[in-house]
Amino acid sequence: MRLTGHVDSFAEERLPRTDQMPELRFDLPSLRYPERMNCVEALLDRHVAEGRGGRRCIVSPQSSWTYADLQRSANRIANVLVSDFGLRPGNRVLLRAPNTPMLAACWFAVLKAGGVVLTTMPLYRSTELRVMIETAQVKLALCDRRLQDELDGATGAAAAAVTAGGFEDFAVVYFGAESEELEERMERAPDTFTNVPTCAEDVALIAFTSGTTGKPKAAMHYHRDILATCDSYGALVLQADPDDLFCGSAPMAFTFGLGGHLLFPLHIGAATLLIEKAGPAELLDAVESFGVTTLFTAPIAYRTMAAQAPQRNLASLRRCVSAGETLPKPVWEAWCEATGIRILDGIGSTEMLHIFVGSPASEVRAGSTGRAVPGYIAEVHDDDGNRIPNGQVGKLAIKGPTGCKYLADDRQSTYVRNGWNYPGDAYRMDDDGYLWYVARTDDMIVSAGYNISGPEVEQALLVHPGVKEVAVVGKRDDVKETHIVKAYVVLVDPSEAGPAKADELRAFCIARIAPFKAPREIEFVDELPRTETGKVQRYKLREL
Fold first, then answer.
1. Sign of dihedral through CA atoms 115, 116, 117, 118?
2. How far is residue 419's CA from residue 437's CA, in Å, rounded to a whole number?
3. How distant is the alpha carbon of residue 384 from its chain centre?
4. Exposure string for 410-429, b = 16+ CB within 10 A, e = fewer
5. Smallest Cα–Cα separation from 402: which of 354, 357, 444?
6. 20 to 30 A from 336, CA-CA: which of 113, 252, 317, 320?
7. In 406-520, where do the E strands start and end?
8. Sign of the dihedral through C-alpha 90, 94, 98, 100
């Protein structure tokens, strides 16, 4: 019988079949965990128990919390969840808030109480929230009052679906300056709590994919998975220390943001700065004002910040991480020239929890994503799942201590085959084990018999000083029964858009890459369609 600390076995019952599960590897001693564990003890409680409760933990423009402050708040919320709302281990709890200390406290509280946490993007609309609530059969939601409207729009229908699924009620508890409902309950609750003795393979969180390819999928991760990403990427690639201050742009609902804002800093006893608005200007302000040392954001932000960096005091900054989308070499070079910092590129996924390919600063090679994170193995496969020789382009295949576990989704068999995780990226590997990104497998363009990488064309165009953003896709040519390369371009100066500018960009591209790769069509747009996490939704461009 499977060992579990959950009473409600909903999540575990909807794990993929055994033959569809990824092969998990625990080759490093640091990745071997006891059967019973609650990840909150390693991330938060041990720091207080070992005398570090007074250390700075979570900073915001309005407040600063120590580890003891965070623990007390999380304990009080856990008591509210159990005593006031009858939360049972294994119940799913939806969190809806911007990146704030209260969101962090709620996240830890749900796990302390043995719940399964489902954090949602602040910009999600009621239709999206309804799908998540119904898919995960959520019992309870904790919501920042400022984000009430869309949740209210979702829960009318969703609550009925949940009740029909076997729950007796569906509750929403609001918090924040305009509500204080949760805060009032916390005042009456004890500030101590005995964590539910969950197990290493109890589901701790459900994270929905960001939707770059259409309908989002629900990825499930164990308590063990949360620590595994800290003991692999966090410890062996990021290599931060307890005196660091982390900050970034991604919402904590995005697992890239969860790792950068919460898991990695707290695992080592460092501090994190949570800001609700985190565009390029705000991130630069944060570095200057708070002394941020470790920054997590997307390539588009580094591109924008590189132009402003010489006018800013970024002396505190020591390491920068990029993920969520491929990092163009010109952006890496511009940032390094402006700041002297070598960006740590990486590829991760919601399905794998965090980054699984990426190298420490001393081993970074410009233009390469890096080598497999220690604890993971990476290969490049053909369509039949066979490893192909170095230098050839194929499908990236990954195994490690984490892996894809969709919640009752037929697409599991697409992501996981024969124990390997296939994130959907085309790569080539060199003889030193470095991986070089070519394209998303669905972004490879076959035109006139040539295989063309959309990101390669994008990188050529991004070097042009007049190009702010670009996305390249294949457009169907029904007459020739093939595809042509089409570029959607956002200009620095939109007034320059027109046929002459398109000809200029095409010629610029041809001077840098083979002529057959240059875009046959260029369309100027005001902005590119993106997910809330900053990823370009190329599938929407292909549908135009």
1. negative
2. 22
3. 29
4. eebeebbbebbbbbbbbbbb
5. 354
6. 252
7. 416-417, 420-421, 425-429, 435-440, 444-447, 450-453, 467-477, 482-491
8. negative
CB neighbour list of residue 297: distance below 8 Å, 6 or more residues apart: 248, 249, 250, 278, 283, 320, 321, 322
> 164, 108, 160, 169: which is closest to 140 by C-alpha?
169
Residue 499, classed as helix, strand or coil, is helix
Q: What gap in Å lies between CA 175 and CA 453, rounded to an integer? A: 47
Phi and psi dihedrals of 295, rounded to 5? -120, 130
**199 closest CA partner among 371, 2, 430:** 2
Contacts of 509-517 with C-beta under 8 Å, sequence gap 24+, read 509/457, 509/460, 509/461, 512/460, 512/463, 513/456, 513/457, 513/460, 516/447, 516/448, 516/450, 516/452, 517/450, 517/452, 517/453, 517/456, 517/457, 517/460, 517/485
Two tokens, residue 511: 């001077």
376-394 in b/e form (b: 16+ CB < 10 A) is bebbbbeeeeeeeeeeebb
Answer for the pair 261, 58: CB distance below 8 angstroms, yes or no: no
| Assigned token pair, 81 | 């969840």
- Mean predicted lDDT score pLDDT of the chain: 91
Residue 378, token pair as written in the block = 């990476």
Q: What is the pLDDT of residues 40-98, one digit of tens each?
A: 999 999 999 999 999 999 999 999 999 999 999 999 999 999 999 999 999 999 999 99
Tell me how far apart the alpha carbons of residues 224 and 401 are, in angstroms, rounded to a whole number: 9
In whole angstroms, give the CA distance from residue 500 to residue 498.
6
Distances in Å between the alpha carbon of 488 and those of 459, 470, 519, 527? 13, 6, 10, 9
Phi, psi of 413 (to 5 degrees): -70, -15
130, 77 contact by CB (below 8 A): no
Q: Which helix (H) or strand (E) holds 458?
A: helix 454-462
Per-residue model confidence as pLDDT tens digits over 119-155? 998 888 888 888 899 999 998 999 999 999 889 888 8
Query: Do residues 175 and 182 lie in contact, with contact meaning Cβ atoms separated by under 8 Å?
Result: yes
How many CB atoms within 10 Å of residue 228? 29
3-class secondary structure, 536 = strand
Q: What is the DSSP string of 348-396?
A: E-TTTSSEEE---GGG--TT--BSBPTT-EEEEE-TTS-B--TTS-EEE
Residue 514, classified by CB atoms within 10 Å of its CB into exposed (0-12), middle (13-18) or buried (19+), is: exposed
Q: What is the pTM of this model?
A: 0.84
The residues near 332 (Cβ < 8 Å, ≥ 6 apart) are 302, 342, 343, 345, 366, 367
**From its phi and psi, is residue 408 left (phi > 0), alpha (psi between -120 and 50) or beta?**
left
Rounded Cα distance, 130 and 150, in Å? 10
The two tokens of residue 447 are 């035109």
Tell me how far apart the alpha carbons of residues 315 and 535 are, in angstroms, rounded to a whole number: 29
